[in-house]
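Title: Prediction job returns without error message
Component: structure pipeline
Severity: low
Priority: P3
Assignee: unassigned

Description:
Job completed but the reporter wants confirmation the result is attached to the right record. Sequence as submitted:
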Amino acid sequence: MVGEIVIAPSILSADFAKLGQEVEAIDRDGCDWVHLDVMDGHFVPNITFGPDVVAALRPHSKKVFDTHLMIAPCDPFLEAFAKAGSDIITVHAEAGPHLDRSLQQIRSLGKKAGVSLTPSTPESAIEYVLDKLDLVLVMTVNPGFGGQTFIPTQLEKISAIHKMIGERPIHLEVDGGVNVDTAGLVVEAGADALVAGSAVFKDGDYAKNIAAIRSAAKAGAAA
């Protein structure tokens, strides 16, 4: 584990009519990172936004912009997302044939490099790129939509990746169905960064919801 638990609200669940204000709100109400879910309608069955929106949001927060690219191919767009203000750029292991090359490119752009695994992809897919990673993102739902139900079998994968990481300074992030009921479970398994969408934005009380997820995560860390 890298350190303190990171809470990264996903703006996929925010009000898209006022995204700038929503980013300012979660920043003010206690988020650690801002999670940006980029979908292309090809790799996943939904379309969200591109680098221009990331650039437009950048002035609204100084928090880490945690950009999750659910797009294929991803390599042609890495520079654009880097220039837009992303701090971490995460690509999917399944999105292209040359994961090592993609991670090298992200780091060459001066950004932190992450890799994400869909539920059906085993942890072995990242075994030989650990030296190029700053973050591993385990999807605990199938990517493409917000509000899905957590897949419990992914806890074993989180635990296995936690062991693979060992003492390396790599964040282990979880995305999908994270709420007060599951936050403790994923942290107990080894995660230290939690993406939460609907669990943060569901009722407008972002501060309360972020605090509740953080409290549940800390309970899992102590278990």
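Comment from assignee: result matches the submitted record. The two ends are 15 Å apart (CA to CA).
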